[in-house]
Amino acid sequence: MYKTVIDAVRDAGVLLRNNCDSKIRYTLKEKQSYVTAFDTQIEKLIIKTLTAVYPSHTVYSEESGIMPNSSEFEWYIDPLSNTRNFIHGLPGFAVAVGLIRNKKPIFGVVYDPMLDELYIGQKHTGAFCNGKKISVSRRPFGEHAFINVDWQKRRGKAKIEEGVRLFTSLGRRCTVRAIGSVALTICYVAHGRLEAMVNNYSDRYAIVPAWSIIKEAGGEILDLDGRAWTLDSESTLVTNQKSTKAILACI
Fold first, then answer.
1. CB of 175 within 8 A of CB of 154?
2. Is residue 67 over pLDDT 90?
3. Could you give all domains of the chain from N- to C-terminal order, each with its CATH number?
4. pLDDT value at residue 154
5. pTM of the full predicted structure?
């Protein structure tokens, strides 16, 4: 049903992979966020695809903003999730596109071009990586758990201090990492590679594409107060469900 969108995302990822080793020029947006010509080029290509196939749908994109329509269907585009890794020639970046209907997830695709891993989630259909069904881990929070903890320094001193506190507190109980790409990190929880992602911020452009994937894989997505995540949430907790209560108690 969404083959055209999936093909566009994969093609965009190939473009990134073929240019990852080059010297990437970039500019700084407000709040010290990086943007490259590839961000805008890929965004335009995906917007063109979406508006051609789904002309009545609303499209939200990280660089261009909103292309409004009075529609219950809304697309979110993160053309380059983790631009910073890309401009340094490092893996761990992705192209991500997701669809919600009446603010609920129904489809998402996240492509990691360096590992050639294509994650897809569709309501009532399941979550998949390269065509193979995936599911969250059954490992509880504790010594053997592996989780992602991240924060963004551009969000101010208080958020930095809170992020360091979370990293330290959770790091006493399990192994923690900061991977970078929010979209990919959520997919790793869905794939059972991580037990959770704890971020003291929220990025709807990266989260919406992975929303269907984590839900269909058996995970859940909340804010750090334990409430169901929404587009207006200010923090993000993605878990395999088994670790949720213990993580909330720890933070």
1. no
2. no
3. 3-133 (3.30.540.10), 146-250 (3.40.190.80)
4. 60
5. 0.93
